[in-house]
Amino acid sequence: MKFKLNSRPWHLVESAWPAKPTLPLNRRVLCFTFITGAAACAALTFASFSGDTGHQPTAGPTVAKNARAAETAVYTTSQATPEIMATGTVKPSLLVEVGTQLSGTLSELLVDFNDPVRKGEALARLEPDTFAANLREAEAALSIARAKAVWQTAAVTRAEAVAMTAASELERASARLVRARAQFARSKRDLDRKAALAERGNLAQSELDRVRTEMSVGAATVREVNAELSASQAKVASADAELEMARSELLVSKATVDQRKAAVDRAKVDLERSTIRSPIDGLVIDRKIDVGQTVAASLNAPTLFTIAHDLGEIEVHARVDEADVGLIRIDQSVQFTVDAYRDRSFDGRVRQIRKSPTLVQNVVTYTIVVSAENRDRVLFPGMTALVNIQVGEAPAAQDEEDNPALGTGPYLSSSVMLRQY
Q1: How far apart are CA 160 and CA 243, in angstroms?
Q2: Measuring CA to CA, how many Å separate 337 from each of 26, 389, 420?
Q3: C-beta separation of 389 from 331 below 8 A
Q4: pTM above threshold 0.70
Q5: What is the DSSP letter of 128?
Q6: Which residues contact 225 (CB under 8 A, 6 or more apart)?
Q7: Model pLDDT, residue 256
Q8: Percent of the chain as helix, strand, coil, to the nearest 5
Q9: If you average pLDDT over residues 59-76, what whole number do you get?
Q10: CA distance 272 to 270
């Protein structure tokens, strides 16, 4: 067999072997892009390693500079903040349970659910007949006490007059005793003088007997006046005692008047309390009584209405596990969501970290109070909130999305993890 030489250049000669299949254009572009990207990543990695260890990269300075810029961009374009996730309950900033201290039948209901009320506004009324009768009875008892006080004042005045009369009689008795004693002393001196004359025979016996009789009468008069003086003294003591008793009874009467006044005031208060009024400005969120229902007040006042203050400012009471509570500080930023508005996030601030623990099935949690605004009144008391508490700044993430493997995603509390898994 002979071969014929071709006059064409060797690189233009068609091969006798079958042609090698070629890739489509789009696959070739994809392969080129992949290879180029792999090479660029290798160059960036080497440049980063060289920059950190202090060695110059084998690539040029332009490659190292570009690698450092790319690394800085990765860490500055996405910042992740550690968060603690917990569940909580939406509550009003101030919640008041309105009850009554009285027992009775509800005769009138003036407000209903969701009604706005002002402080002092009437909410309901109990039947006032019993309380009005009690007031009239107390006023009558007060009038009687006042009359007794007036009568006792007159008794004191009379006792004072009796005491003054007894004192005057005592003074007169004392004066008579002085006079009787003076007359007795004069009679005794006259008897002594005439007895001496009679011994010398210069005085008749009849005159001596008359003088002796006068002295005896004077002595009897002194004894009589002494007795009257003792009686006058007893009268004075009795009058003084009567006066003290009258004064004491007057004090009792005045105290009774004050007591009856207090009873009247209490009856007026009960009559006023038969109208149940709102203690604050707010919104009626609960009502537990209807017209005609009997209210029985015992040691604990029954709750009739529940009034929330201003729902424009609400609180979220979040339950945080004891392992996470040490990371929380006052005024930290909080975001939370509720099931009613899944696509909406609400902002708040940590206002209080309560130190009272709650133990449920050997799990200890603490209540974190978060204050938030509710200007459009879309958050209702009792809603369950999923709370994210930002506890500090963390290193930047590697990309825009959270990377659970690197720990840059939200920090889940142990209690939340148990509930989810």
Answers
A1: 6
A2: 47, 12, 17
A3: no
A4: no
A5: -
A6: 173, 176, 177, 179, 180
A7: 95
A8: 50, 25, 30
A9: 38
A10: 5
